Amino acid sequence: MAASDKVQELHVYEMNERDRGSPAYLRLSQKPVNSLGDIVPFSNKIYRGDLEKRIGITAGMCILIEHKPELKGDRYEAIFSFYFGDYGHIAVQGPYLTYQDSYLAITGGSGIFEGVSGQVKLHQIVFPFKIFYTFYLKGIGELPEELLCKPVDPHPAVEAAPAAKACEPHAAIANFTN
Amino acid sequence: MASTTSLKPIPSINLPSQSHRALASNFSYSKPFPFHGLNLSSVTETSSFTSSRSSNPFTTTAFFFNKFKQEAAPHTPKPTKVQELHVYEMNERDRSSPAVLKLSQKPVNSLGDLVPFTNKLYSGDLQKRVGITAGLCVLIQHVPEKKGDRYEAIYSFYFGDYGHLSVQGPYLTYEDSYLAVTGGSGIFEGAYGQVKLHQIVFPMKLYYTFYLKGIGDLPAELLGKPVPPSPAVEPSAAAKATEPHGSIPNFTN
After folding, report:
1. Could you list the residue ranges that cross the membrane (chain A) (predicted)?
2. Is the pLDDT of residue B142 over 70?
3. Does the model's pTM come out above 0.90?
4. Residue B57 and residue A4: Cβ atoms within 8 Å?
5. Which end of chain A is more exposed for a tag (fewer CB within 10 A), N or C?
6. Residues of B with CB below 8 A from A39's CB?
7. In this structure, which topology does domain A8-166 adopt according to CATH?
8. Which residues of chain A lie closer than 8 angstroms to B53, CB-CB?
9. A47-80 residue pLDDT tens
10. Where are the domains of chain A?
11. Which residue of B has its CA nearest to A44?
């Protein structure tokens, strides 16, 4: 494989700990059922895939596209970023389906992620509080050791390590985004 | 729709003197670089480019070349050309912008508030009107200790007949930030990289430095010597008046 195609995997847990006022469900459609017109800004915490380090936050919005009654869920178009403290950020766009996994496009990044391309797999564990992401990153240098880990397998009871939750210095990256 | 817009009287925020989060420039990685890894040093063709690492798609020949060089010295792969583009975004209060939609329905800036906006865009030397910005800021959180806010910004820069650049990333009203260049059209088709946002006067004057990759040489018209940002900067009279010599062809309006 040519170096330019080198793919690096990065694992991240997104957790809604209900302390960021998120999500903000804007029922602009003014309809009783989720409908096109509803917009959902959100921001949650993100942890390294082994749940031992607090990394930062997600920030962005979901645009409700369609309610899927037969699947008891919704399709959103999601546009948001993952913030990795001093390392920079990764911007993504794509489908968020509340009833199944999906792949979003990586549209770009900054800092160590400047020039990044690829896709990210979204795996929902507990809607809408726990999501596990696997990034397939191309076009950037070697990821720092600190971000790489053996991920914890996603299951409903996963929780961030207490030290990471408390953002203790050894359990958080430098200037983690908050 | 003037009724939906209000330029809230915003207290002038004391911005830290050009400080910004130090990103890649100050990193030291603990892992030595394998020969096929990508370099960290800013290998670019622009003198003032310090804040970003260049990512280098390797050609096959470069791959083998580096294999030979492995023992000789830390390898310096062929750099991806980075072009700097400087622009000024000015809110001249004549585009009904921004439209602060307090959808959170809370008195303080809160998640849920949305801010569509569009401002005028001038070349970095402030001699030519090039077009406009257009897009959306999503309020993420109010940051009381910084007396400001974090937004997630998703918008484009329009350059008339030349095309446009799209960006996504953080807009912090209290400090500089880097946004991702997500793509472009026209001469910017295939563009990638990042852009530094520097706020001069919140929220009326912003100065951007694009670090663009993946495109051909930018036209001279867009590459005039930039005016260093300061609170009193103003576009030239001809640019403001969009006279023919003070604007690019079919500047976006």
Report:
1. none
2. yes
3. no
4. yes
5. N
6. 103, 114
7. AOC barrel-like (2.40.480)
8. 112, 114, 140-141
9. 999 999 999 999 999 999 999 999 999 999 999 9
10. 8-166
11. B140
